[in-house]
Amino acid sequence: MSDRTSSEYKNAFDKIEPRAEFLQSLEETLDKEIADRKRSKIKSARNLGIMTAAAASIVLVLGAAIIIPTLAGIDFKPENPGSISESSIDDNSKNDNDNNNHASDDFNNYYANSSAVTKPLEIEDWNTENLSPAECAALLADMLSGDGLSYCKKSDTNVFTSAEQISDAEIENIAGLLRNAEETDETGDNSAKSFYMAVFNNDIVVKFTVSESGVISIPAKNITLKTN
Amino acid sequence: MQPFVSLYSVISEIKYRKVWRTKEGNFSLSEKFVQELTAGELIGKYSRMIYRLAYSRLQNVSDAEDITQDVLLKLVRSDKTFKDEEHRKAWLLKVAVNTIKTFATSAYRRHSAPFEEAENVTYTDNEPSGVEDAVKRLPEKYRIVIHLFYYEDIPINKIAKIIGKSEGTVKSQLSRGRDKLKEILMEGGYYVG
To answer: Domains (ranges, CATH) in chain B?
Structure first.
C-alpha cells in the first residue's frame, strides 16, 4: 500500500465516529456496571470478614473440644455411647445431668454415624464485632438483600413454626428501614410489633422485631434502632 | 528450606515494597490502582478504537456498537491487572478481535439477511472516501490485519499476538490484503501511486 493510500485509509477511518446517542447510552451502562462491581466488592469483603471470624471461632471451639477433654483425662471412646456422659456428669445437679446426657447423646450419635463426620460445620452467629448499631443494621440489610438469604418469616409472636414467608418486596422494604435506622433509647413496647426470622444459606439465623412506631430491635445483639 | 525462604521473600516483597509480580514482569500496586478509570475516561480512550476496528470488519453500525459495548463491559468486569497503557490497549484489541470473530460466525449473523446501513454511519464530514468504499469490498479475512497495521500502527509481531496467528500468516494476509485493496482501488478509478 502506498503512503498515500495508507494516509487515505487513516483519514477515512478518522471520519468514522460512533453515534453520540450510543456513546451516552454506553456511558450510562458502564457507570452502572462500575457501581455494581464496587458494591459487590464491598459485600464480598464484608462476607469474607464474617466467614473469617466464623472460621476462627469454629477452630477455637474444635480446639477446645479436643484439648479440654484430653487435659481433663477423659477417655473418649466413640464406640461406647455412655463414656462421655458418665465421666462428665455432676451428680449434684439434676439439670446438668439431663443436659449432659442429651449433649453426650448428640455427641456420640454424631461420631457413631461415620457419614456425619463429613457434615458441614454450621455457623451459628453473624459477626458484628466493632460495628456500631447503625452499621450492624446496615449489615443485616445487606444480608437480607443479598443472595445468601434463604427465607424470611413474619409472625405476631416469637414463634415461627406456622408463620408465612414474606415476599421479596417486603424484605426489601425491611432492608430499607434497617439502612435508615439509628440507635435509639425507645423500646417500642407501647406499639404493636411484628416478629421476623431471617434464615440464611450459611445457617445464620437472625430474629428481629419491627414496631409500628418504627422501632427495630435485634435482641441477640442487644440493639434497638429507630427508622428515620 | 529453600522454598520457605523464597515464599518469605515474595511475601516480604509484596508487603514492604508493594510490588506485584505477573507473567509480564513486576510493577507496583500503586500503578494498578491508577488504572481504575471512570466510564467517561474509558469511552474517551477506547470506544473509537474498538468501534472502528469492529466497523472495519463488520461494516455495520449496530454490530460495531454492540461489539464496542461488549468489549468495554468485559474490561470493567475483568479483574485483569495491566502493566501499562500499552498492555491494556493490546488486551482490549485482542478481546475485540475475538468478540468480532465470535460475532461474525454466530448463528444470528449467519442466518440474518445482510443489512446495508452505510447511510447510518456517522462521518465527521459527508463524503466517504474511495478507500472506505474499497475496504467494504475487501475480503473479510484481510480487514482486521489491514486495519491494525495501517490505522493502529501496530507492528506485525504484535498483530500476530493479538489475532493469535503466526507472524508469517500476518505478513501473508497483509500482503494479499494490500494487493487486493490496490486492485479494488484501481478498478474504481482511484489513484494508486
So the answer is: 1-34 (no CATH), 38-187 (1.20.140.160)
A18 to B182: CB separation less than 8 angstroms, yes or no = no
Kindly report, residue by residue over B25-66, the tens digit of the pLDDT: 554 444 443 457 888 888 999 999 999 999 999 988 999 999
* A18/B56 touch (CB, cutoff 8 Å), yes or no: no
Q: How many CB pairs under 8 A join A and B?
A: 101
Q: Which set of grid coordinates corresponds to residue A71?
A: 487435659
Please classify residue A131 by burial: count the beta carbons closer than 10 Å to its beta carbon, then call 0-12 exposed, 13-18 middle and 19+ buried.
middle
Nearest CA among B151, B139, B144, B147 for reference residue B183: B139
Check if A17 contacts B (Cβ < 8 Å). Answer: yes
What average pLDDT does range A54-58 have in this prediction?
87
Grid cell 471451639 is found at A61
Residue A1's H or E segment, with its range, is none
What is the mean predicted confidence (pLDDT) over B118-143?
70
Q: What's chain B's average pLDDT? A: 76
Three-class DSSP category at B122: strand
Strand pairing class (A223-227; B19-22): unpaired
Write down the residue that cell numbers 480512550 correspond to: B45
- Is A185 part of any domain? yes
Rg (CA), chain B: 21
The answer to whether B68 touches B103, Cβ cutoff 8 Å, is no
For residue A107, being part of any structural domain is answered with no
Q: Which three cell numbers stand for residue B53?
A: 476496528
DSSP secondary structure letter of residue A121: P
- Rounded CA-CA distance A68/A90 in Å is 17
pLDDT at A145 over 80: yes
Domain ranges, residue A185: 133-227
- The total number of structural domains in chain A stands at 1
E-assigned strand segments in chain B: 19-22, 25-28, 122-123
| Nearest to B69, CA basis, from A135, A31, A91 | A31
User: In chain A, which among 37-56 make CB contacts under 8 A with chain B?
Assistant: 37
Short-list A202, A227, A196, A203, CA closest to A214: A227
**Beta carbons of A3 and B193 less than 8 Å apart:** yes
